[in-house]
Design a protein that fits this description.
With 362 residues, the protein is of the alpha/beta class. The radius of gyration is 21 Å and the shape is globular. It starts with a strand and ends with a helix.
Length: 362
C-alpha cells in the first residue's frame, strides 16, 4: 500500500498508564515500522480515578479543546485515527480530519454516551440525547468506524445505523513462559484487570464461597485495581472466605507468567454492556492457552464464539451454582489437561496491523 502520514488522537498517552493510550501508541509504533509517518497526539492528562459531574464535563471539554487546537496546528496528514477518550472524541477528530482534508478512522473502545447512561454516570435526558445525535453524525462522517467485536458492530448498526468493521483489542506484547511436557497449572482461578462497574466481581466471591463450603482446593486470585477492588475484600471477609488472594496490577514483564500459572482465567461483562464495550483482557486470555470462564451475556456473538470451544465456560451472572460445579469438576479431576502453548502476542498484533493497513488503503 502507499505510505501515509497519520495523526493518531487520544486523550491519554502511553505514559499515563491508560489502556487506550497504550493501544494507540503501540499501533502507531507498528505502523511506523512499516514506513508510515506517524504522530500520536495526546493531552498529557494523567490517568486515574475519573471525576464526576461538572468536574468531569469541564475536564473532558478542555481535553477536546486541547486536541482540536493541537491537531489544527499540525502539518497536513492523509488520515486521522481517533479513539474514544475523551467521550465523543469522534466529533472533534472528525472536525480535525476535515480541516486537514484527510480521511477519518474512528476506533470505538466503548460506545458513549450509552455506556455512561447504563452505568448511571449520565442521566438519560436532554444532554445524553444531544451527545447521541452528535456522535451519530460523527460516525456517519467518518471514512470508517472500527469496533472491537461483533456485538459492538451489531449494536452500532441497530442503534446508530452505522456499518463498521471489527478489529479486536491490540494486545500488549507480553512474554509467555515456555510450557514444558507434563507441566501443570496451579489450582487457582484468576481475575486480572479492571475492577470497574461494568464488570461482575461480587459473584466471584459467591462462587468461591460455594467451592470452599464443598472443600474444593482452589484459590481465587483477584488482581488489578478499580472501584470494586477494596469493597471486594470487605465482602470476602463477611463471607468468611479463606482461599482468596488480592494482588496489585502485575508489571507487563510478569503478566504472561501470572496468567499462565492459573488454570482458569475469568472475563466478565455486565449483561447490559453487551455491544457497548469489550473487556480488553479477553484477547490475552484467549491466546494464553488457559481455560476461560466468561460471566455475562450468553447470547452475544463473543459469548457464542467462546462456547464453541468446549473447554471454556460461558455463564450468566445468576448461574453461580452452575459455575461452581463447572469449576469443581475442573479442579477435582485427577488428571489435568496438558496446558496449551500460548500464541505469540506479536503474531496477533501483526494480524491487527495488516487489517489496519487494508482499511487505510481503501
Amino acid at each position: 500500500m502507499l505510505l501515509m502520514k497519520l495523526l493518531l488522537i487520544n486523550q491519554f498517552g502511553f505514559a499515563s498508564g491508560a489502556p487506550t493510550g497504550r493501544i494507540l501508541a503501540e499501533l502507531g509504533a507498528e505502523l511506523e515500522k512499516r514506513g508510515h509517518v506517524v504522530r500520536v497526539l495526546v493531552t498529557g492528562a494523567s490517568y486515574g480515578k475519573p471525576r464526576r459531574g461538572l468536574g468531569r464535563l469541564l475536564q473532558e471539554g478542555l481535553s477536546h479543546l486541547i486536541l482540536l487546537c493541537r491537531s489544527l496546528g499540525h502539518p497536513k496528514v492523509d488520515a486521522v485515527i481517533s479513539m474514544t477518550s475523551p467521550a465523543c472524541l469522534a466529533v472533534t477528530a472528525g472536525i480535525a480530519a476535515k480541516m486537514h482534508r484527510a480521511k477519518h478512522f474512528h476506533w470505538v473502545m466503548d460506545v458513549y454516551p450509552d455506556v455512561g447512561v447504563r452505568l448511571g454516570e449520565l442521566k438519560d435526558g436532554t444532554l445524553a440525547h444531544l451527545l447521541s445525535v452528535l456522535i451519530r453524525r460523527a460516525y456517519r462522517g467518518a471514512s470508517q468506524v472500527i469496533t472491537l467485536d461483533e456485538d459492538m458492530r451489531d449494536y452500532l448498526r441497530e442503534v446508530y445505523g452505522i456499518d463498521s468493521v471489527v478489529i479486536g483489542p491490540f494486545p500488549p506484547e507480553v512474554i509467555w513462559p515456555s510450557i514444558k511436557n507434563g507441566q501443570k497449572t496451579n489450582r487457582c482461578w484468576l481475575y486480572s484487570g479492571n475492577f470497574g462497574r461494568a464488570h461482575e466481581i461480587q459473584v466471584l466471591l459467591q462462587i468461591q464461597k460455594k467451592l470452599e463450603d464443598r472443600r474444593v482446593q482452589a484459590d481465587l486470585i483477584l488482581q488489578g485495581q478499580g472501584p470494586q477492588f477494596l469493597p471486594s475484600q470487605d465482602a470476602a471477609a463477611n463471607l468468611g472466605l479463606l482461599q482468596v488472594q488480592w494482588r496489585a496490577p502485575v508489571p507487563l514483564a510478569k503478566l504472561g507468567e501470572s496468567l499462565t500459572q492459573s488454570e482458569v482465567l475469568v472475563v466478565t461483562r455486565r449483561m447490559d454492556m453487551k455491544g457497548l464495550l469489550l473487556p480488553s483482557k479477553l484477547t490475552l486470555a484467549e491466546i494464553s492457552g488457559r481455560r476461560i470462564l466468561w460471566i455475562g451475556d450468553t447470547d452475544g456473538k463473543t459469548a457464542q464464539r467462546l462456547s464453541l470451544e468446549r473447554r471454556h465456560g460461558v455463564f450468566a451472572v445468576d448461574e453461580a451454582e452452575a459455575i461452581s460445579a463447572w469449576l469443581q469438576g475442573i479442579f477435582e479431576r485427577e488428571s489435568h489437561d496438558q496446558p496449551v502453548e500460548p500464541t505469540a502476542t506479536n503474531f496477533v498484533r501483526q494480524q491487527a496491523v495488516d487489517r489496519w493497513e487494508a482499511i487505510l488503503s481503501k
